[in-house]
């Protein structure tokens, strides 16, 4: 009915203008009224609908939902009053952030919904809550093995299931207790399952998967949040995310464990996150996998089967901006007890790009042959500093594994494919085995375990000094500034490529295997000791792997057979026939050392010329380890290729020993032609001779018992200082107490202070002098004189024994050349005086008056 009110028409003149503050006051009042009106609308109480028996508005949840409009015009709350509902519930109501729909138990009620609860087509901003004042007061239960319990499907969006118990028995590998399923066009986006328990409905009927996500229809399921839940008791997978799922997934702070009475024997995985190559911006963090209770506690999760167990496996996109992060997760208290080749893998990256940090593996074991893999990388894996603990394995099979920090291996690291980059240090106390792929290291290498690279390459690319582990390398590449220094002997199977920087061997050796080659430049080279073995053939140039020595045996030459070459660089041979050598020489040993006929080529780097002109280079040969040298001339010489190298050739070489290139014009201060050490009784007689001397002050004579640490025992002044004729010298070491090995060397000093030059060493062996013991007079009163000498001992024990062998007196003394007075206190009688020194006992009969 329409009502019309009478009205009177009035005519007004112009209203008077109001002051500005009056106009602004009314504008402020109008604004405040508008705000109050909006606040009243927003705080309008939700419409309460009750469901249950008795006085409830509706008897079923489906009936209550039918009475609610869609889209929602205001907030609604459905309260469950009964203890049990047996129905499948479909949510198709569309709400907003303001107009929401909440379904929850009434205060004091703990209902069970027996059936499947679905957030379906049109559902948006709907919350299923189990909080009625206490947490998890609502249970969803589905006993059928053919159906899920909780479903998000057909473009469900912004829906939440919170603080509920979700129990199911779905046995299909392509289903789960909770299913995030097919979309219609946009996918199921921004849905949440939080603070809930997802587990088995029946003790004897475990589900295959607890949470299963797959979308074969429209759109992609984006931004699903699975947080703060407990997921337990399943036969296959705790969380399985497969194709059709998209960006922004968050799986965090969940506990995945197993405490059912039946011990599992099937393959099990905690989190299998494999949405596909287009899915990025995933966060898998702070999840605990293992044990029998939340937080991977309560005992050990035992799997007695013969199939693999996996903690977290990632297979997703490769974005470097929308990164996929796996951080702070724990795999703990898991034991695979089957006797098979099954592996226990804590973390695996199968595809895409994933950043891993702060994850831990502890309390895990596998009685099978494949052990415990802390990490298996088959894609792009970015790690922070990472440790492989003792008893665990890390496997790199494909892709690129980047360690942004230090990699510490105390277990087993198998590099079977793909590449590795370590930006920090690589510390290996376990076993490292590389069978394919490259490993690039920018920090130091420290190896106290086993280091083997049977294929692939190790790259040293740090900008600065690096230490380099000894071990077995297939390929070694140096491509970083500074000096890289070996910490142990290294053997190369295939090749060493020097691109930038220097590789120093220090006191160790770099050995080239039978097929290995060395590539160097004048700016990047190996400094120190390189060893190689080859077998030259007639008419064929043998280059010994590129170490700078080449042999060409004549067609009718006797062949040297197996030839072992040691190259030393960085050190100029001393006394090369009275000439100065380049910073390189070769020691050559072979099955046949004489009767040869071959051309010998020595190649060098320009910085090794040591100030010598190419035109002045000559071959020098030493047959006594560099003590004396013979000028062998040169057949040809010149600059080499590439630039920065040179060579010299000598034809008709008939024997081997030590070879170098020296300067024909610049003599050394002393040209030593002989140095000899011989024994004469307990003395060492040293003799030497010089061919020439220049500014020579004399010779220091030094001795060592270990060949490493020398001390000076004498000095012989030069006879002339400057001389072009032969000079002869002699020194006798008559010091007492010489025993065992003694090494003698000469140190030549110039009159002008500068670098000393060393010759030798020469080795002698001295037998230790026999100990002596005497006491007199043999019949004594109070004083007894003891003469006791020993070549090395510093203490001795004197004892007086009676006729029954009992000790009646004892005194500690020091053996020495001078006799000592002692006053044994004992009754008169016959005794045996013993002296025990260095484990040896000497005796003498004495009588005390």
Automatic annotation (TrEMBL):
InterPro entries: Pectin_lyas_fold, Pectin_lyase_fold/virulence. This is T9SS type A sorting domain-containing protein. The lineage of its organism: Bacteria, Pseudomonadati, Bacteroidota, Cytophagia, Cytophagales. Gene3D superfamilies: Single-stranded right-handed beta-helix, Pectin lyase-like.
């Amino acid at each position: 009915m329409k009502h019309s009110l009478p009205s009177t028409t009035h005519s007004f003149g112009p209203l008077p203008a109001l002051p500005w503050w009056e106009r602004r006051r009314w504008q402020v009042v109008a604004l405040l009224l508008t705000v109050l009106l909006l606040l009243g609308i927003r705080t309008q109480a939700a419409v309460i609908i009750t469901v249950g028996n008795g006085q409830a508005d509706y008897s079923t949840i489906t009936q209550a939902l039918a009475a609610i409009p869609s889209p929602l015009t205001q907030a609604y709350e459905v309260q469950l009053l009964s203890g049990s509902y047996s129905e499948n519930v479909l949510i198709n109501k569309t709400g907003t952030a303001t107009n929401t729909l909440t379904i929850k138990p009434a205060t004091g009620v703990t209902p069970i919904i027996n059936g499947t609860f679905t957030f379906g087509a049109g559902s948006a901003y709907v919350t299923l809550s189990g909080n009625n004042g206490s947490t998890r007061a609502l249970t969803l239960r589905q006993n059928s093995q053919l159906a899920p319990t909780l479903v998000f499907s057909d473009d469900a969006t912004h829906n939440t299931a919170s603080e509920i118990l979700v129990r199911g028995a779905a046995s299909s590998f392509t289903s789960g207790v909770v299913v995030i399923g097919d979309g219609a066009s946009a996918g199921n986006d921004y849905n949440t399952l939080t603070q809930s328990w997802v587990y088995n409905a029946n003790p004897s009927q475990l589900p295959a998967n607890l949470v299963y996500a797959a979308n074969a229809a429209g759109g992609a399921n984006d931004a699903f949040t699975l947080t703060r839940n407990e997921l337990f008791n399943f036969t296959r997978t705790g969380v399985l995310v497969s194709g059709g799922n998209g960006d922004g997934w968050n799986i965090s702070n969940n506990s995945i464990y197993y405490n059912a009475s039946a011990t599992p024997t099937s393959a099990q995985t905690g989190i299998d996150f494999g949405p596909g190559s287009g899915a990025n911006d995933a966060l898998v963090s702070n999840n605990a996998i293992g044990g029998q209770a939340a937080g991977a506690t309560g005992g050990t999760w035992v799997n007695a089967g013969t199939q693999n167990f996996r903690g977290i496996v990632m297979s997703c996109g490769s974005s470097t901006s929308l990164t996929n992060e796996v951080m702070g997760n724990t795999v703990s208290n898991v034991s695979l007890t089957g006797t098979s080749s099954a592996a226990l893998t804590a973390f695996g990256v199968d595809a895409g790009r994933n950043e891993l940090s702060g994850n831990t593996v502890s309390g895990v074991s596998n009685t099978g042959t494949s052990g415990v893999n802390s990490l298996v990388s088959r894609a792009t894996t970015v790690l922070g500093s990472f440790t492989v603990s003792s008893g665990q394995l890390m496997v790199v099979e494909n892709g690129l594994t980047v360690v942004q920090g230090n990699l510490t291996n105390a277990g087993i690291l198998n590099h079977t494919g793909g590449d590795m980059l370590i930006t920090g240090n690589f510390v290996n106390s376990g076993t490292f085995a590389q069978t394919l792929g490259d490993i690039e290291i920018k920090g130091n290498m420290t190896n106290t375990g086993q280091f083997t690279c049977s294929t692939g390459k190790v790259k040293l690319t740090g900008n600065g000094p690096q230490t380099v582990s000894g071990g077995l390398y297939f390929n070694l590449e140096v491509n970083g500034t500074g000096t890289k220094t070996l910490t142990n002997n290294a053997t190369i199977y295939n090749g060493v490529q020097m691109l930038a920087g220097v590789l120093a061997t220090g006191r160790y050796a770099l050995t080239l295997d039978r097929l290995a080659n060395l590539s160097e430049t004048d700016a990047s080279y190996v400094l120190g000791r390189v060893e190689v073995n080859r077998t030259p053939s007639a008419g064929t140039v043998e280059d010994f792997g590129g170490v700078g020595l080449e042999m060409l045996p004549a067609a009718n030459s006797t062949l040297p057979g197996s030839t072992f070459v040691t190259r030393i660089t960085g050190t100029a041979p001393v006394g090369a026939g009275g000439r100065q050598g380049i910073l390189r020489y070769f020691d050559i040993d072979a099955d046949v050392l004489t009767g040869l006929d071959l051309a010998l080529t020595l190649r060098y780097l320009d910085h090794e010329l040591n100030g010598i002109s190419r035109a002045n280079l000559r071959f020098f040969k030493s047959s006594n380890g560099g003590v004396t040298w013979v000028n062998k001339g040169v057949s040809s010489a010149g600059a080499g290729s590439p630039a920065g190298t040179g060579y010299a050739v000598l034809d008709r070489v008939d024997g081997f020993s030590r070879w170098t290139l020296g300067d024909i014009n610049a003599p050394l201060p002393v040209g030593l032609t002989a140095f000899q050490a011989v024994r004469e009784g307990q003395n060492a007689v040293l003799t030497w001779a010089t061919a020439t001397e220049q500014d020579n002050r004399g010779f220091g004579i030094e001795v060592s018992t270990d060949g490493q640490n020398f001390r000076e025992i004498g000095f012989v002044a030069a006879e002339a200082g400057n001389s072009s004729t032969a000079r002869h010298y002699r020194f006798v070491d008559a010091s007492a107490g010489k025993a065992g090995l003694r090494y003698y060397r000469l140190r030549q000093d110039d009159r002008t202070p500068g670098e000393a030059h060393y010759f030798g060493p020469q080795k002698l062996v001295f037998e230790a002098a026999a100990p002596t013991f005497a006491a007199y007079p043999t019949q004594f009163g109070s004083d007894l004189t003891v003469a006791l000498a020993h070549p090395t001992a510093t203490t001795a024990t004197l004892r007086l024994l009676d006729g029954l062998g009992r000790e009646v007196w004892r005194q500690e003394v020091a053996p020495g050349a001078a006799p000592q007075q002692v006053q044994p206190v004992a009754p008169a009688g016959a005794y045996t005086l013993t002296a025990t020194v260095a484990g040896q006992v000497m005796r003498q009969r004495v009588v005390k008056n």
